Amino acid sequence: MAKCIYVRIALFGGTFDPVHYGHLRLAEEAREAAGLERVLFVPAHTSPFRQQEPISPPRHRIDMARLATADNPAFEVSDIEIQRGGVSYTVDTVATLRALYPDDELFLILGADALQGFMHWARPDAIAHECILLVGVRPHYDLQAALEHLPDAIRARVQPVPMTPLDISARDLRQRIRAGRSIRYLTPPNVIEYIQQHRLYLEP
Ligand code: ATP
Q: Which among 3, 165, 188, 196 has the fewest CB atoms less than 10 Å away?
């Protein structure tokens, strides 16, 4: 009988507008903690919670994520949610990944802020049924409190990821750029170059 080799694949969703070192460290710490073979960065077409907010075109968010992850062989960027279009529900993406990888172990990477709102996502039970939730700490968000508010069945699927808290957010980067301030050391140099070349985030 052929030996089955299970691959450990994580879905890492977000708007990534732009991708930054908070995302990259969380993905890397999650990869190490869970022994992941692949981390799929999946930029959302439209976040269900940010439908009224302006967001950069998908092409830019994908290109920046590709630049930021190019030097990590375990990292990959998927345009699955961009191709699907419309509002991006993680549960749909998980279903697609499950169909593509029926025998592999699926994980979902998220920060403590995202875990706080997890029960307001579409079908959180279905997501947690398919994926182990790898959750990283984030400054200003209480991971313990978020865990306590989860139903037992979902809490049992959470694996906290020990990581150095990084107080970096895409919103802060956008604000700094608009104010003409430096974003050096907050995101990789090739992402900064891309932002400058395409004159992103200069308008509110
Ligand atoms: P914005 O500031 O525009 O809201 P963001 O920086 O929170 O964006 P997202 O693309 O919305 O970035 O986040 C994608 C995922 O990455 C979420 O699960 C979020 O919790 C996590 N994340 C983002 N920044 C950090 C960080 N500094 N530390 C830990 N997790 C983070």
A: 3
Number of domains composing the chain: 1
pTM: 0.96
Residue 180, domain member (yes or no): no
Question: Residue 96 domain-assigned?
Answer: yes
What DSSP string runs through 123-185? -HHHHHHHEEEEEE--TT--HHHHHHTS-HHHHTTEEEE--------HHHHHHHHHTT---BT
CA–centroid distance, 132 to ligand 1, in Å, is 19
Question: Is any atom of ligand 1 closer than 6 Å to the C-beta of 166?
Answer: yes
Q: Which ligand 1 atom is nearest residue 171's CA? A: 2
Nearest CA to ligand 1 atom 19: 111
Q: Report d(CA 103, CA 39) in Å as an integer.
A: 17
Q: What is the pLDDT of residues 141-171, one digit of tens each?
A: 999 999 999 999 999 999 999 999 999 999 9
